Amino acid sequence: MLSSERYSTRVIEPVNLLVHAATMTVESELMSVFGIGDEEKDKVTKCQTIMTLYDLSVEDLSIKWESYVMTQANDPEMKVSIESLDKLQEYIQQSIRKKNQQNLTASAMKAKVRPGIRTNFNMSNLPSMGPPSTPSSSAKKRRLETPLSKSHGMVTSSPVSGGLAPSSDPVPATPETPLQSRQADSGTIIESLNPEIIDSAAEGLVEVSKPIKITAHFEDSKYNFRPMGQKLLEAADILDEQIETFTKVVQEHYQLPDDAFANPMAPSQKQVVVVGRVVPDSSVNQHNIRLDATSVFLEASRVAGYGERAQLKLDNIQNYSFFPGQIVALRGQNPDGSGFIVDEILQLPYLGSFVSSESDIEKYRENLNGSALKVVTCVGPYTRSDNFDLSALSAFVDRMNNEVHPHAIVMLGPFIDVTHPKIADGSISLPNGDPQTLDDIFTLAMTPVLRNLDQNTRVILVPSTKDATAKHPTYPQSGFDRKSLGLPRNFTCFPNPASFQLNDALFGVSNNDVVKDMAEVAGPLVERKNRFDRVAVHVMEQRRYYPVFPGGVKTRKIPGTETIEHISGADLDVPYLGLTELPEVIPDVLIMPSEMRYFARVVRNVITINPGVFMRPTGNGTYAVTHIKSPDPEDLEVAETDGDEKCYLHNVWKRARVDIVKT
């Protein structure tokens, strides 16, 4: 793990260093977001034509493009061209036509009764459960001996034809709405990872008899800091420390002498090793920058290179993947001081794998009575953008109680989305009371629905930077206040990001869209690989849940002007980025929520999941159900010996099934 000295909870003077997107023209924004060169004005003109036709902002167009290449073209690495933009325009037109047809159908079925929110909950017989425990001394880590030479399993997700039957229980006191008319396939499995390992239908019949144990792998007190109080010097120190820490890691791993390292800008006739941060060719930090092979620069630390930036010349390598904020170690030379010629990329060593003793494995088996651990993961928003109807969430709660019976549900925000139109303009009204504050909206709308969850199901809430009720609007974030939100004791509020253990499985959760924000430039050999896998590998290699810097920003065009306005984004609190690092070992399950298409994959023996969003702007979304077979020492790989007791690799990826389910 990287140095823990940065985890200081000192009070920072309130100096705001959050970097927002500079005012840019639409043309420059398009060139930045889509990686369009100065000589390709025809592509910019085509993009502007599409934006004008469909009243889209640059951010909206970017989302449409990502959706098109992932779902329609099925080519994540498609380049922007006039032909591909023509097809994008056809895709947008087809989407609008389909939406109009759905609206016509919905209008004919529109109900006359106003939907309500179920409030018949029972507070009696709540389980007596305290806060999550801290890791026991028996939890151990194992350093991978040869991380560069080990072969790693790669399993991709596969669609399945079968699925869970929708709940036969009626949705409580809610008239038929357009939302319900599209719920015919709710609960259907639309994609599965390792479907042959576990029969999910049979496991759904097993009810939870007692709450599962949760072990927190973080110190909650370190999140008690004042956000948006950054000092320029302290932020610079943290960024420098990241480079210096990895320099020591690389030196130790490759056993390099001190004189092997050099300033990338210093002329050198011999090969040297440089460690620094990948940055664009601009002297001013900008958000949502898309690199190309000619605009990649390396920024050295102030100790090693006075903070100078050297252009990277990549002609000698084919297998590379760079993104802004990435810490890299390179071998090469700068013969005339004009740029650093890269001859080799030194792969950063990975963290170790999580292991447990034989006695701990037996305890884990006893906790589950030999059955599989079931964990459901869902990501907000939990309402559509045109209303604040929580009937889909209510139906989800009923399905959890009556069909799925999970041991734990990991719910990620936003719960009360600050960008929701009705929240932004203050026009929201609730049937069971008039909210006076944003917290009231949660307690009056969300709490009554969530309290209906089975009290034997442990529920973990993780906030988002878009949560109106979150104390910290920046990343990293402290958790919600469970008591102030009126939630029962089977709910646990964790920070963002968080690492925690459910029985034997170590989960890592970060509620910041690194999949969308990691705008990388890749060599021809790397481009043929799956982009989702590349993002997961970067997170594990960089040892940070969100290694992009500066973070992504969501913007929109102010109507009637050419000004680009900041809406939301990663909003990094730089002095506390140490709290966004992975624990001392790589998690068994890595949750990477994103607006992009859902996925469940195995990447370097780690299960990586994007559950998708629970509700899309105009319809249902998806969530993930993970089944993990109870550990058996006879099936596990021995990692090391602790005295007379054996230790075992968890190998969760070999005994887990992940289903992507329709909301």
From TrEMBL:
Residues 117-186 are annotated as: Disordered. It is found in: Nucleus. Keywords: DNA replication, Nucleus. GO terms for molecular function: DNA binding; DNA-directed DNA polymerase activity. Residues 375-600 form the DNA polymerase alpha/delta/epsilon subunit B domain. The keyword Secreted does not apply. It holds the Pfam family OB_DPOA2. Gene3D superfamilies: 3.60.21.60. Residues 237-348 form the DNA polymerase alpha subunit B OB domain. One of its GO terms (biological process) is DNA replication initiation. Its main location: nucleus. Residues 177-186 have a biased composition (Polar residues). One of its GO terms (cellular component) is nuclear envelope. The keyword Nucleus applies. Belongs to the DNA polymerase alpha subunit B family. PANTHER family: DNA POLYMERASE 2 ALPHA 70 KDA SUBUNIT, DNA POLYMERASE ALPHA SUBUNIT B. Accessory subunit of the DNA polymerase alpha complex (also known as the alpha DNA polymerase-primase complex) which plays an essential role in the initiation of DNA synthesis. This is DNA polymerase alpha subunit B. It comes from Kuraishia capsulata CBS 1993. The lineage of its organism: Eukaryota, Fungi, Dikarya, Ascomycota, Saccharomycotina.
